[in-house]
Amino acid sequence: MMTGGKQIKSERKENTNRFSDLIDCLLLHILSFLDFRDAIRTSVLSKRWRHLWQGLTSIILHSSNFGKGEKFGSLKNCMSRLQSLSDGLPTSLHTLDFKHTGGSVTPELLGEFISYAISRNAQQLLIYAETNIESLKPSIYSPIFSCETLTFLKLSLYHENDSDKRIVFPNSPNMPSLTSLHLANVAFCARGDYVVDPFSTLKSLKNLIISHCTLRYKPYIICISSATLSSLTIRSRDEKDNYAVELSTSNLLSSFAFEGVPSMHLLGNGLSHVKQVYIDAYTLRNSSQDPPQVLLQWLRKLTNVQSLTVTANTLQVLSLIPDLLKIELPPISMGSLKSLNVKMKQNSPPVPSGTLNFLLQNSPSAEVSMHP
C-alpha cells in the first residue's frame, strides 16, 4: 500500500510524463502563450527543452513583465536572442507582439524589432511603445507599410508627455495581404486639396480601427474609400480630432463603432449601409463644438441599422439637444431597427427620460434591453 507522500510523488511523476509525451508542435503552441523571456527560461528544464523555444513562430514580448530597473537590458538581450537564431529555424514569423511601457525605448532598438519582424515575413505585428518620436526617422518604421506578408497590424507609438508628436501614416501603403488595421496616435498628411485617402491601396482591408489620430493641414477631411471594408471603429478623446470623415465605402460596411467626443462630421453614404452600430459618446466641459448636434446628424444617416447599442453616457449627450422630444427623425432613419441595447457601465448616469422613445419613433416594435 502506498503512503500518502509516495502517492503524491507518483501522481506528479505521471503528470510530468504526460506533459513530456506531447509532440514538439504542441509544446511550441503552449510556449507561444508565454512572454518570450519565460519561453527562453524553459531551456533549463531538460535537454529536450534546451533549444525548443527557438522554433517559436509567435513571440510575445511585454516589458511590463520585466522587473524594476531591468527593462532596457532585458530588451537588448531578447533582441540578441532573436537575432542569434540559427539559419535552420522557420523563416516565417506568424506573430510579433511587442509592448513597452513605463519608459521610453530607443528608436534604434525599436527599429531592430521592426526589422526582425519584416525580415521573417511576419503575418501579424503588434507594436505599442513609448519612444522619442522626434528621433524616430521614417526609415525606421516605414518598412512596415510595405510589408506584403502582413495580414494584421496594430501600431501605437507615442512620445512622452507630448501627444502632439506623432509618426505619419503614408498616403499609399503597400500591404496587399492586410485584412485588419488598428492605428493609434498617428497623423495623416493631406495633399494639396486637403483631402487624404490613406486606405484606398489596401485592397484586402476588412477591419479598420482609428484611435486618437489627427490630420495635418486644414480643412480636415479623411476619405475612407474601400470596396472590402466591413467594420470601422473610430475613437476620439478630444476636440483635436475634429476632422471630417468621408465614408466612400460599399454596402459591405456592416459594422460601425464610435468611442469618445462626437466632434467629427461623417460625410458620404457609408453609414446608410451599416446594420450594427455601437456608440459610446461623451462631452467635454466648455466645449467649443456641439457634440449633441453632431451625434444627431449621425443618427439621421442610419437608414438600415438593425442593432443599435448605446451607452447611458451617449443618451446623456443626446438629451442635451434642446427640445429633443419634439424633433422628428426622417421616416427612413432607424426604420429597420430590431434591437436597441443600452450599455450601463459602472457609475453610469441614469437614462434621461424620453431618449429611448426618441430613438424608437420609427421602429416602436424594436426590442429594448439594458445590460452592463
UniProtKB/TrEMBL annotation:
Domain (F-box) ranges: 22-62
Top-level taxon of origin: Eukaryota
Bilayer-crossing regions: none
UniProt organism field: Crotalaria pallida (Smooth rattlebox)
SUPFAM superfamilies the record matches: F-box domain, RNI-like
Protein name per Swiss-Prot or TrEMBL: F-box domain-containing protein
Entries under CDD domains matching the protein: F-box_AtFBL13-like
Xref: Pfam families: F-box
